[in-house]
Amino acid sequence: MTFEALGAGGSMAGRLGERGIREPTEVQRRAIPRLLGGEDLLLASATGTGKTFAYLLPFLSRLLEAAQDGDSPALLIVAPTYELCSQIKGEVDFLLGAKNGPGRLSSLLLIGSAPLSRQIEGLRKRPVIVVGSPGRLLELARGGKLRTGRLRFLVLDEADRLVSAELRADTAALMRLTAGTAGDAGERSPEQPPRQTIACSATLPPWSRELLAPFVRGNPEAAFLECSGPEVLRRDIEHWALFSESRRKIDTLRSFLAAARPGRALVFTGRAEEAGRTLSRLQFRHIAAGGLWGDMDKSGRKQALEDLRRGRVRVLVTTDLAARGLDIEGLSHIIALDVPEEGDAYIHRAGRTGRAGKRGLMVSIGDAEEMRRLARLEKRLGITIYPKELYGGKILAPEPFETGL
Fold it and tell me: What is the torsional sign of CA 84, 86, 87, 91?
């Protein structure tokens, strides 16, 4: 099966070939025909399985078929973090190649940490594709600068995060505007066909699908498509558990890093203050580490990712929100300094590694209560988590317990 056979990506096949991508993944085989057929989708598929290309290829193919005009973008992509928005914008520009630019399919990034005046100037150039965060998009739409009357395609990437408590109000207000039900910015011309929507993430639990249901046409159950679930966790990622008392977790992390010597590792903590404390301790011990969390400024977050990608640091300490959607090539180790209550959080963390068919390692460092929680997640997700211990600078399997009977 080729992308051309699916009906998408024909003019972009050469660009895909540059990355060695010649055959569609499962999620692309299943989603692309439905999107080309005009359906709305609620798409759940594990990270690293190709969701971004699953919606970009059909939507860009359809935009390339006909000239775009008007003062509204034709494709709007909404994502929760600066890093994810930037990555998606980069993939758009990569796929379009020479077809991206003035007089072609131009794209624009709209995020909260960039100068508003520069973004307004960018909108005056009438970009066909806009990628942005919900808060900034809503601000520009309410101000009449971002018009959505000719919007053809809408993407909600990391959709479960977009309808979480902290982003739900902005996302809902933006959806009302783009549907043409709340003011001039969303008024659609009578000849415009209905807006086509896809909401996607690694996990779309029932509560998130219920909140997303008003944004899609038709029956939400029929719109739900689930691909490449926990089998990706089992096939491409190995899972380890390291016991540590809470007060010694950072020391255990240091010992693990010294023994494993990962090329690139992502370390998760529960809150930004814990991430900062962990980073300080690692740097004090002369470990090449950087940090990435929500309240950092844009330049600091960008520098942290660049340092990891270029090998200036080998460890990046982050939080769940800041790491949403990150795609870092060669990320071999994920290390969690806590164990989440929900399987979805574990899936999102583990999914940063083992991408595109490569093997990865997920390591959870926890106390006695967290190890019990991890055992419950192991059963719920259908994965095998191997206990490990550190001894003499090496990572070993624990010795079997001798009863003496």
Answer: positive
Helix residue ranges, H only, 317-367 = 343-350
> Token match 């903590």: residue?
269
Closest CA to 371 of 278, 265, 239, 262: 239
Spell out the domain ranges in the chain: 3-227, 230-396
The residue to which tokens 């809503």 are assigned: 138
What are the distances in angstroms from CA 18 to CA 7, 94, 98, 172? 20, 10, 14, 38
pLDDT beyond 50 at 403: no
Residues 6+ apart with CB under 8 A from 351: 46, 47, 48, 202, 232, 233
pLDDT at 159 over 90: yes
Q: pLDDT tens across 71-99, in order?
A: 789 999 999 988 899 999 999 999 998 66
| CATH T-level topology, domain 3-227 | Rossmann fold (3.40.50)
pLDDT of 273 above 60? yes
C-alpha dist (Å) from residue 157 to 220, 254, 312: 17, 34, 30
Q: Is 140 helix (H, G, I), strand (E, B) or coil?
A: helix
Mean pLDDT calculated for residue range 349-360: 82
Three-state helix/strand/coil letters over 210-277: HHHHHHCCCCHHHHEEEECCHHHHHHHEEEEEEECCHHHHHHHHHHHHHHHCCCCEEEEECCHHHHHH
Are 3-227 and 230-396 in the same CATH fold? yes
Structure tokens at 338: 């806590």
Cα 353 to Cα 119: distance, rounded to the nearest angstrom: 34
pLDDT digits (tens, 9 = 90+) for 7-42: 887 778 888 888 888 889 889 999 999 999 999 999
Residue owning tokens 């600091």:
300
Instruction: For 230-396, give the CATH class.
Output: alpha beta
185, pLDDT greater than 70: no
Whole-model pTM: value is 0.82
Tokens (6 digits) for 297: 């400024």
Mean pLDDT across the chain, nearest whole number? 87
**183, 168, 166, 146: which is closest to 214 by C-alpha?**
168
Instruction: Find the helix or strand (DSSP H, E) in which 173 lies.
Output: helix 168-178
